[in-house]
Prior knowledge:
Helix content: 40-55%
Mean pLDDT: 84
Shape: elongated
Order of helices and strands: EHEHEHEHEHHEHHHHH
Oligomer: single chain
Number of helices: 11
Strand content: 5-15%
Distance between the termini: 31 Å
Amino acid sequence: METLTFQPPLLGESRAIDALREFIVCVSLRAEPVLLTGPAGSGKSLTAGKIHAIGPNATTPCCCFDGNGLTSEEFEDSLATSIADGGPGSIYIRNSDLLSTETAQSIARRICSGVWTPRLLFSSRQDLDSPGWGIVREAGLLSLITRVQRSIPPLSERPEDVPILCRYQVWLHSLPESFEEEWQEFEITELPGLIEQPWRRNVTELIEFLTEYCGGDSVMPRRWAGDVGRSTAQEEFLRRELEEAFEEVLALLAEEELGGESFILPHESRPFITLGD
């Protein structure tokens, strides 16, 4: 059993990532199990971590299991300690399609019992129509975990997310005084080709390339100094991006002679997401 701890920011400018952010917010305060599907490296574990991190039990552990080999005893043992006594607030099971019959039945019984459990999060690389779900379907679990479900598309289907992912990694592996120069060089020499790549291992493959390109340490980039440094680095990067976007809005307002001292940012209302669509 692992514990999900540090989670990088969920970066992207595509409609898919915008919808995923809305999905995370919509389901975070709910109690139903959530199923995330998508190819390896697309961001399922990151999404599960975000759902836990903004939910009501965010200060408690999020325990992570691999469905391939998870026994019913291990699952039940993970529920033995209450949140008040330091037990998990969420349980995340990846490769859920590989659960054994006994374990799948145990989880299904727990969901149907009405007895309170930690938030249950599941993920799989398999599409819902894949025959790989046979055991889980026959155990009665699949119908229980697909009521709230989201598929995360591969990076190759959302190339507009590549620049912001690259910018974040280059920023992490550069010193403050050299970032702008390093990013401008990267943007000219490397970025155009990267947008066209198929990225068969998705974000994971892109990050590996960027770490090697920057000649940095994937565990401890230049801007990180332990968990506190990681958090600070995230906040600083996102704040920087927001400030640049804000400056662009002010420039547009100035061009339109609308005045930049007091204004309301344009907002397009979005319909509520119907869970499970």
